[in-house]
Write a structure and sequence with these properties.
Largest sheet: 4 strands, parallel
Structural class: alpha/beta
Radius of gyration: 24 Å
Number of strands: 11
């Protein structure tokens, strides 16, 4: 558990102990007895014990990949996007969208039966129309690829962003962006990181993705952004990239921990000044 989550957990425990102490103070009505002592301090030992208890409660059966329904592993999760206020059913949105329908109609309430390491930090509150033309994102795309000649590129990028919002890796695609500086690549990547959240974006270098422990840094992310990749690619790196974009299982190992296999859900964006030598793709 990272430092940020530990800090949040410590704050929650402090609030809980303070609430218990306030109840004890409110119920203390015998001046002949000592008043309740100060709230219990939250020591690191207590935080560690709570974390270990949470780990036990969070165990899932072997063989269940994320995202998935723990109560029905065969139930599809392909078109669900976890958001702050629920699971957005994209198919239902596309098929039945009108401005008069309550946005909640397209949301499935959060449930512990839905197993996913990803949840975007913003809410779905409806859309004015199912188009990006009048949005800030649409302006970014038109800036990077202006005019009618840039239409095809704008469509591809829009489709790929939609692909990244899901945890679906069945299209066997990665995005390669080439060209010298000043062509909008950096702006587009900034938008991607803001949209998905920094916690859902990895940055493993292309020449490291096949290293023994590297998969642990990207296997549970929505995308791995590889900036300024080298034009020369080793065969083992190429093999790993094919395996990952093909939706194959990735071997995940952290130092000192047992390795396991997980169906890869992470997609890849590669930027470079010149197209790498993909000899076998």
């Amino acid at each position: 558990m990272n430092h940020e989550l530990r800090t949040k957990l410590r704050g929650f425990l402090e609030d809980e102990f303070l609430s218990i102490w306030k109840v004890e103070v409110d119920n203390w009505d015998n001046p002949k007895t000592e008043p309740p002592k100060a709230p219990r301090p939250v020591l690191s030992k207590i935080v560690n014990e709570v974390i270990e208890s949470m780990k036990v409660q969070c165990l899932v059966k072997t063989g269940i990949s994320f995202p998935g329904w723990l109560d029905d592993p065969d139930k599809s999760t392909k078109d669900l996007i976890p958001l702050k206020n629920g699971l957005l059913d994209v198919n239902k949105l596309i098929e039945g969208y009108t401005e008069s329908i309550d946005p909640k109609e397209f949301l499935i309430p959060h449930t512990p039966d839905f197993f996913s390491p990803v949840c975007l930090t913003y809410k779905f509150e409806g859309v004015d129309e199912l188009s990006i033309e009048g949005t800030n994102f649409g302006q970014v795309l038109r800036f990077a690829f202006p005019g009618p000649e840039g239409l095809k590129s704008r469509i591809v990028l829009q489709q790929f962003v939609g692909y990244l919002l899901s945890q679906d890796n069945t299209y066997n695609k990665f995005l390669l962006m080439t060209g010298q500086g000043g062509n909008g690549k950096s702006v587009f990547l900034t938008v991607i990181k803001a949209l998905l959240g920094a916690e859902n974006v990895a940055s493993s270098p292309l020449d490291k993705i096949a290293d023994r422990f590297e998969a642990s840094s990207y296997y549970d992310k929505l995308v791995n952004v590889i900036d300024e990749a080298s034009p020369k690619i080793e065969q083992r790196t190429l093999n790993q990239l094919k395996r990952l974009t093909g939706g194959g299982d990735v071997r995940v190992e952290q130092k000192g921990k047992k390795a396991f296999f997980q169906a890869n859900k992470c997609r890849f964006i590669i930027t470079c000044n010149q197209i790498p030598q993909f000899q076998d793709l």
